[in-house]
Amino acid sequence: MRIDKLLANMGYGSRKDVKILLKQGAVRIDDQPVKDAKRQINLEAERVTVHGEVVEYKPFVYLMMNKPSGVISATEDKVESTVVDLIDPAYAHYDLFPVGRLDKDTTGLLLLTNDGAFNHALMSPRKHVDKVYIAEVDGEMTADDVRRFAEGVELEDGYTTKPARLELLSKSGRRSTIRLTLSEGKYHQVKRMVAAVGKHVERLERVQIGGLELDPTLEPGAYRELTETEVDLFLI
Length: 236
Prior knowledge:
Blueprint: H1 3-9, H2 15-23, E1 27-29, E2 32-33, E3 48-50, E4 53-54, E5 62-67, E6 97-98, E7 107-113, H3 116-123, E8 131-138, H4 143-151, E9 165-172, E10 175-182, H5 189-196, E11 200-209, E12 212-213, E13 223-225, H6 228-235
Parallel strand pairs: 7-11
Antiparallel strand pairs: 1-2, 1-3, 3-4, 5-7, 5-13, 6-7, 8-10, 8-11, 9-10, 11-12
Helix pairs in contact: 1-2
């Protein structure tokens, strides 16, 4: 990879900005100053520094966010605040995008990346990656609902969902708390499935995708990078 492309990709500015750094002598390869923007780099064998700081080449980034209510799962919007707006500008050069989506009022586990293969591994219907939700429901969910969800529920548009695992966590009067595991992600699916059995979702949180659980230390709106082990849950 050319040195100017490497540094631009890693957030050191535009190609023009990088050329200025090179002319200033701020860039070194194995402690030797380099000024040729076309200089090819062996990323495995050569050490690059800018102003003495080592440049670690990282082409892909994977973030876990605890999505708060009130923001949309998009990269940009002229009216609404987006999940990307919550990310530190230091990540801007990665052009991150959300993997799938959560509704504006839905909270919990959302992944962001710039890796198309990672996105495909999670979102392709053929992959059957389970998503797990906790929902507070206005209405009493019953054992009959558990059975109906396990068989697949017919939605208002005539579509019958794939079998889903419904667990009844608690009840208080006419309110229920449920845990629902889905292997597909139709538009507003959890809300529509609950509505199909005559109840209403009042609060919804996604807590797990595949084998990856939401980090309980993340406050709403907070995020962290996934570990290599966590990324490998989906790419291996």
